[in-house]
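Section handout 9: paired folding examples.
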Amino acid sequence: MKTLVIHPKDNSTDFLSHIYKDKDFIVINDNIGNSKKRKLLKEHDRIIMLGHGTKDGLFGHKKFMIDSNDVATLREKEVVAIWCNADEFVKKYGLKGFYSGMFISEIDEAYYEGVYGLTTDEIEKSNNDFAKILGKHLDSKNILEKVKQEYKNDDSSVVIFNSQRLYSSFEND
């Protein structure tokens, strides 16, 4: 499967690079412009979109790198969408793939969501574990089940919170 990764440079989401590390994917970290982006989206079977965002799309370089203008092409693809509230974007536009809802990856997000008592180390461990596990299961059938099964820690409120906000719109999940 020909895969494109869109992961805007941002130190706070560097951990997500574990998802595509050592894989033969085209990776976009910089602002490449809309026409080049649209061309690349059309040329790939799977689009992995990672970073910060909202229900309206994926942020990058002080703008949306993925938004409603990309939906027609994305509907024809398998997607992996990991950003805060990607679930609203995926559901609104009827995309197929694996995606997250609100995802705590920083201490301020934990406070905002009312999840207290976490340490930065605990959040970093959760981030790294999640990214490595998702990378391991990218090509698996039942990706949601496999990721949730392995990304589990009943003693970690951040893992519990994040796990409850992972979704799949694949028929076999």
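Moving on to protein 2 of 2.
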Amino acid sequence: MATKKSNPQAVQHTLKRARQWPVLDRTKAYPLAEAVKLLKDCANTKFDESVDVAINLGVDPKLADQQIRGTVAMPHGNGKKLRVVVFAKGDAAVAAEKAGADLVGAEELADKIKKGWLAFDRVVATPDCMAIVGQLGQILGPKGLMPNPKLGTVTPNAAKAVQDIKAGMTEYRVEKAGIVQAQVAKASFAPKQLEDNIAALVSAVKAAKPSSVKGVYMQKVTISTTMGPGIKVDFNAIA
């Protein structure tokens, strides 16, 4: 079997960037403010890196009541520019368009998606259009795009859902390995904005703890930029 050759230039670039990072104690969980300062010190690329949070949970995602999933409003937005499509009719469709939806429709929108168009990041639907959206289950489902009442994306007030998403409403869900990962900001955000957004996600996941979890629920919280190292955060002080 052929082995993949490493790119010497890429390796040297990574090593050069690593030498520019502050010294990190990989075993230490830093207070949030200190962790954010280190994170910003590590964000030294030419582009505005994303800030991601990874939360290791002591859950079994195979169990229905331990499939942690929800949404949380980022106090300062999450730095994403999301494209939102809405399945709605009548006044609800007009309101969704005014709220900033990228495309609004019903049967014609479903036909467009069936033909392979997927240039969007979120799907919102009013309850009366769910029969239409249901036809797209095999397309939207595997991509995690199916509207869901628990996430606020199946709602009679589609306009508000669009506004919330555009303002930074962030979806989170536990992966097979028991980890929740989500983008909460950009590295250019002010330190206090980063702290607030990180705390918002951690608090939301804490509050979502199922009663069936008997062991340690939240095990580790790590923050990182797109190209930076993981920095452990002491989450115990986050309400």
